[in-house]
Amino acid sequence: MPEIITTSRVLLPLAITFAAPFFIWLLRKNINVREAVSFTAAILTTASMLQFVPGVLSGKIYTITVFTILEGINVKFCVDGLALIFGLIAPFLWILVTSYNIGYMRGLSEHAQTRYYFCFAVAIFGAVGVATAANIFTLYLFYEIISLFTYPLVAHHEDEEAFIGARKYFIYLMGTSKLFFLPAMVLTYVLAGTLDFNLGDLVHGIFPPGADQNLVTLTYILYMAGLAKAAIMPFHNWLPSAMVAPTPVSALLHAVAVVKAGVFSVCRMILSGFGLELMDKYFLGIPTAYVAAFTIVVASFIALTKDDIKARLAYSTVSQLSYVVIGVAMLTPLAVQGGLMHIAHHAFSKITLFMGAGAIYVATHTKKISLMHGMGRRMPWTFGAFSIAALSMIGVPPVCGFVSKWYMVRGAVSIHENILLIALLGSTLLNAGYFGPIIYKAFFLPAAPGVKLEEYREASPVMVVPLLITATISVILGLYPQIFLNFIKTFSF
Question: Higher pLDDT residue, 210 or 77?
Answer without folding.
Answer: 77
